Amino acid sequence: MKNSTLGILIVLAGVLTIFVQHSYAWVVSAILIGGGSGLFFWKDKKTGDEKN
After folding, report:
1. How far is 34 from 2, CA to CA, in rounded Å?
2. 20: Cβ–Cβ under 8 A, 6 or more apart, which residues?
3. Cα 36 to Cα 28: distance, rounded to the nearest angstrom
């Protein structure tokens, strides 16, 4: 799975987490959104099998 796809899924999980009725849901949401956006902008490494 590519980093951008995984990043989008983690950000969506963070967005859904903010609506949970728990006192520290905003902390978990912020961590998920931050980590997901970091993965989204991370460059994928090219392997020898992939074409340019």
Report:
1. 17
2. none
3. 12
What angle is formed at CA 23 by the lines to CA 15 and CA 31, rounded to 5 degrees?
Answer: 40
Residue range 1-39, pLDDT digits in tens: 788 889 999 999 999 999 999 999 999 999 999 999 998
Among 36, 39, 18, smallest CA distance to 28 is for 18
Cβ–Cβ under 8 Å, residues 32 and 13: yes
pLDDT bin (cut points 50, 70, 90) of residue 52 is low
| DSSP one-letter string for 15-47 | HHHTTS-STTHHHHHHHHHHHHHHHHHSPPPPP
